[in-house]
Amino acid sequence: MLRVYLSGEIHTDWRDQIVEGAKDLGVSFDAPVTDHAASDDCGVVILGAEDNKFWHDRKGALVNAIRTRKGIEEADVVVVRFGDKYKQWNAAFDAGYAAALGKSLIILQPPEHDHALKEVDAAAQAVARTPQEVVEILRYVLEGTLPG
Amino acid sequence: MLRVYLSGEIHTDWRDQIVEGAKDLGVSFDAPVTDHAASDDCGVVILGAEDNKFWHDRKGALVNAIRTRKGIEEADVVVVRFGDKYKQWNAAFDAGYAAALGKSLIILQPPEHDHALKEVDAAAQAVARTPQEVVEILRYVLEGTLPG
Amino acid sequence: MLRVYLSGEIHTDWRDQIVEGAKDLGVSFDAPVTDHAASDDCGVVILGAEDNKFWHDRKGALVNAIRTRKGIEEADVVVVRFGDKYKQWNAAFDAGYAAALGKSLIILQPPEHDHALKEVDAAAQAVARTPQEVVEILRYVLEGTLPG
Amino acid sequence: MLRVYLSGEIHTDWRDQIVEGAKDLGVSFDAPVTDHAASDDCGVVILGAEDNKFWHDRKGALVNAIRTRKGIEEADVVVVRFGDKYKQWNAAFDAGYAAALGKSLIILQPPEHDHALKEVDAAAQAVARTPQEVVEILRYVLEGTLPG
Amino acid sequence: MLRVYLSGEIHTDWRDQIVEGAKDLGVSFDAPVTDHAASDDCGVVILGAEDNKFWHDRKGALVNAIRTRKGIEEADVVVVRFGDKYKQWNAAFDAGYAAALGKSLIILQPPEHDHALKEVDAAAQAVARTPQEVVEILRYVLEGTLPG
Amino acid sequence: MLRVYLSGEIHTDWRDQIVEGAKDLGVSFDAPVTDHAASDDCGVVILGAEDNKFWHDRKGALVNAIRTRKGIEEADVVVVRFGDKYKQWNAAFDAGYAAALGKSLIILQPPEHDHALKEVDAAAQAVARTPQEVVEILRYVLEGTLPG
Amino acid sequence: MLRVYLSGEIHTDWRDQIVEGAKDLGVSFDAPVTDHAASDDCGVVILGAEDNKFWHDRKGALVNAIRTRKGIEEADVVVVRFGDKYKQWNAAFDAGYAAALGKSLIILQPPEHDHALKEVDAAAQAVARTPQEVVEILRYVLEGTLPG
Amino acid sequence: MLRVYLSGEIHTDWRDQIVEGAKDLGVSFDAPVTDHAASDDCGVVILGAEDNKFWHDRKGALVNAIRTRKGIEEADVVVVRFGDKYKQWNAAFDAGYAAALGKSLIILQPPEHDHALKEVDAAAQAVARTPQEVVEILRYVLEGTLPG
């Protein structure tokens, strides 16, 4: 069975498209918590409030890392989505983390980011433009069949 | 001897400040090629031109990775500087790469990036605001002495 | 599935509280033998008595380590409980062992131990005060939901 | 050359005794910062004050870990001293960390701690009672000669 | 369960013979995509055409590597078949990759390649001449029984 | 589930005793091929005769290593039995191999071998005298219960 | 210092050209024994003749592997040269071995081999056509300067 | 520089012959303590007497392992000598330990041990009959020259 971790942008439905498109492939998908508010506040909600926003963020980021690290470390393929907005440094961080562990990386990005992502792309097995392309890669890798 | 890799922003003199401030500490510093034009074009200048900008960039990024990976893999401490401009995904990628290898990370960043860098910071040993603070950490780590 | 190893204090029911609270999460829990007398004497009961208490203890500690090491090495998350009594060096030893293996650590400790545990906590993803908080972390990590 | 990391108790001169006793052996010694006040405050002195003692401690512990991890990871032998006072959980944490990395461990401890340290001792190559015994082990390991 | 990766030549039915011969052994077999055209073109069919044949090939090779690396990394035994035709450098590359990961290697080759394959064979557990011999090795390894 | 590899002496029924004694524990046992003639001749029977006994032996030993290495690498516990006869260097080799991989070792040996096996025993978690003691260790490790 | 292993074709002076071109860079070069006759016969000359050419070759290949493995494992960069003649499976094997260890690979090959080497190239940081290009990569990686 | 660990038999001058024969090669040799009495008694002489011979031996074996493990782990080549006498299980243990770490092994043994050592030999790069052959292998590996 192929295990795929879906990292990065959380404000569009790209993960749903991939999971739906690959539903017959027997792939096991994992991902970070995509509820933005829960993700930001998980640390302080569970472990107690912080006056300082820096430590508020730290507590949450450390808790989220339990899930993220496990997801990446157990994955065969890590798909990292860079969207149109935000800094998305956590996505690039996940890509670097996955690369250092020798994971197969697929980067899903619009062409306007190509130059800025060249170091990330150079560590990847594929640069895809749409969730559908990611699905087609997964299908080919698992079944050897191409679209069309 | 402590080996320190200085990753990230290449348009200000933060590396020089750290190297100068730490010059009596016997630290061995390494860094990417900071000549922006050379870094972008190294692949095609050496290995031949490409019509397609995507592969132009790929060739260069792959060659640069020879240096970057060696620098990070041999480092005890990886300092990653996030500046005011650009996407800086390669900096976050290096941070993730270093974190996965268990390196000590020091992130050098302005406070306005704190929320966006919370996942990166959570993997780091220190978040510094100035090159001088990085020097003080290196001095403390090596000699046990604090400033002032 | 998340595998969690519950290390440390064996004289209160904190493990039961976590297992009960997380019973709907599909977590696989492991732990050391918590029968204090059996744990102390397993070596000599099985392998023969020793005149010297030092070797009596050694025989038992080596046998217990078969279970402990397997439990930690296979865990995704290691929870280490520091209670009110005893030296608890084996708990701190387990925490260091887990940290070196890159496991996610959750430390469960009363506030009065905060200063003494600062090095251990700095290697952890979370410092919890109650078994309930540990359960909430596990629930959030697995399901993305927060309490309340 | 043998590299030895001297972890644990910082309020007596046991490190000096070992370094002095082994001065003709060509051993390279490393250790944590043993200035208690500097060690406690390094984080806030360099990186800015914290209102909350918990994060004051965290900042310092993270900075100290840069030195500690490097010292342990580069060591051939890790000597861990347990003294008469304090919780010393950081010493036990270092021992566990070193054990997981496959380092040779020498535990230096008074007999009254034997039962409480049995799990730590069971991961060690030697349990010594005096700094002089540690020196004699180092001399034997390097030169094959025994005392007397 | 034994996991076996079948690498190398894709123009004869040697894989079918092994899978058929071992069908009662409970072995899990994996292999590269053996549809030559699909394997050559997978990159550009899914991710877009390339003017330059070099990058056409690169795109496909990177996508195929997702499957190949997973197959080799998860295998207990890697069988590498060298046939009569083509350069077959990818087969030798897979053998080297598997050897560096400590996999058990079985090389399936005709005698005329013996001298040219001596370095590859020296890293292998067996040099077989027919698919049937590979089946007999798998049967012996799993069941301890010999043919005849 | 605990996976146990039973290495060493093949001329008595010690493996059967352990498997029988532990049959209610859900342990997964593995072992080398214990048919002495098959083990000696597997290489030449499958892969062709050798004039030279040295290469006859080599061919067989390489084939047997496919099974042995997998068995040891997947084991949680490696039990190594030293009996009364033969050189048994392969048993000691397996013990060293397992020790380097960080496996829990149980050595099953008669007292007359104690001095000769002291280096092997020093890397083990237990030195047992009878198969029953091995069973009792497995039961304790899995269930926390002691005999009697 | 950069350590470079020069693998592959031994019948032209490409190694000399690289070593000469890089002589001011402080690179440490290593390579297999390039005396073809010595390389083929080292096993039997030192360890005794073999009637069977297969084992004659095996003995030599095993001895040569002592040097090859050390050279690759200690290298930062592995350059693999594919020439015009011979099967060159050992070159591709070395490339796969180096790739699995995460080494930076530079493949030096004529364009007519591009399709056959696509899997090897896809694991490399650069595909060079001349020894001079390899020198220019090394110079850029070390000094950040480009030719011309 | 090549680092060679000389393991095994301690009652003949084979180590001296190798060191003398290789004195111009710049090899760094390491070995266990070869003073039999010191090796047996080092534990109790330094750390205190034991009534029980078993623990007397254990204490010494653990101390000796500090040296042995370091020697093997840092070696490029491990030479293991099997002589005419004694059980020599520690030699076979060292061979297994080195094999699991991927070290190049050279076994130095008389022909009468060939069958008993077949599993050990199958993990080795060479089986030598005399110290002079070991020297010739080292010379060839380092300088590419053959005897005669």
Write the layout of secondary structure elements.
Eight copies of one chain form a homooctamer.
Chain A: E1 3-8, H1 14-21, E2 28-30, H2 36-47, H3 53-74, E3 77-81, H4 89-100, E4 104-108, H5 118-122, E5 126-128, H6 131-143
Parallel strand pairs in A: 1-2, 1-3, 3-4, 4-5
Helix pairs in contact in A: 1-6, 2-3
Helix content of chain A: 40-55%
Low-confidence stretches of chain A: none
Biggest sheet of chain A, open or closed, and with what strands and sense? 5 strands, parallel
Counting helices, strands and paired strands, the structural category of chain A is: alpha/beta
In oligomeric terms, what are we looking at? homooctamer
Could you report the average pLDDT of chain A, rounded to the nearest whole number? Answer: 97
Number of helices of chain A: 6
- Termini separation of chain A: 25 Å
Radius of gyration of chain A: 16 Å
- Globally, the shape of chain A reads globular
Number of strands of chain A: 5
DSSP strand (E) fraction of chain A?
5-15%
Question: Greatest contact pair?
Answer: A-B, 39 and 39 residues
Q: Strands across the major sheet of chain A, in which order?
A: 2-1-3-4-5
